[in-house]
Amino acid sequence: MRTNLNLPLTKTLTALFGAVVLLTSACKKEKAALPTDTGNTPSKLSTNAIGVAGPKGVCYVEVNNNDIRNVGNYTLSTGEQLFDIAIIFAANINYDTGTQKAVLYFNPQVTNVLNNKATYIQSLQAKGIKVLLSILGNHQGAGISNFPSQAAANDFAQQLSNAVTTYGLDGIDFDDEYADYGTNGTGQPNDSSFVYLVTALRNLMPTKIISFYFYGPAASRLSYNGVTVGSKVNYSWNAIYGTYSVPNVPGLTAANLGPAAIDIQSTSSSTAASLATQTVNNNYGIYLYYNLPNSDVHTYLSSVSNALYGKSTVYTGTSTTGVTFYQDINYGGTVTSTIPKGTYTLAQLQAYGFVDNWASSVKIPTGWTVTMYANDNSTGTSWTRTSNTSNFTTLSPNANDVVTSVKIQ
Asked: Where does the GH18 domain lie (predicted)?
């Protein structure tokens, strides 16, 4: 995941790296005057989970690898949804060297989720779950901490607001990672940038959610000219998985902070339960989950929900079996959602995150047959596979980056 420039990167943060990044020095830019705080402070949303008293559950989903709809497949034993907020991880901040501006970028998987909003976004919202889009850098020098002027921050805030409106999202989550400040001649983090950005975005989205993943240079630049980030955002949460650490965000109360953070696929259930108990005992309003897989993990999640709400977790979905295509050989890079049996045109495949002339490997369930075609509508050169194939360049003829339509039986 770390080798592809234009793909969101996995959140593999550690306490060590967190300490290093938070201590990164910054060259201060000339500061324009920030407008005085007009009192446009976001109303702090209810801190109770959906339909049940207790902390809100916030869940990041790596949509490169997993289906965000799975957030809606978990309820408490009494029927309430386990998760309150689902976060699409992640869109990128790219840098246009021609215009010298930050540009909002969506990779193919994120594009698939957004373009098929009725399938992926509205289906969650129908269950009462809020859906946010996470924003982070992309190794091009642009990030939330180095906008050189208020006008530059305003411009990017407008791009974010437009995306929220276009795709019917409930808000934006900020993550100050992978910017590589200084690349392409960009500036280093400055004191005004993040405050400018959240102020502009709050003015554009007075009723939407804005959250901050407490990490990176932005975490030490939360106040400027009398305006605090905490007066503009709704929530902030700890970024180091498997730990308990209260984000220091002036302006946010305990009800809007999440000190506990877990990686569902790597944090032990005992640690996850302990962190949940601390959250409740200390009256904090958020519990952060990351890395929800497509598989059923309700037993693990019950260790958390029992501590948070005194109720176990129930999985209401169906374990998905199907074919998955990968962008790179050896099952690397971006992966599609699981694709069930059927005959698929390119347009139909795109709903699963498939990209034309892109696939390099495929995983196939035992007993299934996949016929891949070079052209749309099951035409052109074809290849028939009955088992996992790790490298399309080994097929005859070469099938790498040429598949357009498929038949799965």
From this structure: 55-311
Sort residue 171 into left (φ over 0), alpha (ψ -120 to 50) or beta.
left
d(CA 309, CA 55): 8
- The model scores a pTM over 0.85: no
Average pLDDT over residues 368-378: 96
- pLDDT-derived band at 5, boundaries 50, 70, 90: very low
Look up residue 234 and give its DSSP letter. Answer: S
- CA separation for the pair 48, 68 (Å, rounded): 22
- CA triple 90-94-98, angle to 5 deg: 165
Catalytic residue among 30, 62, 80, 177: 177
C-alpha dihedral (399, 105, 182, 213), degrees to nearest 10:
-110
CA pair distance 58, 377, nearest whole angstrom? 41
177 is catalytic: yes
- In which residue are the tokens 């990209």 written? 355
Tokens 């944090």 -> residue: 267
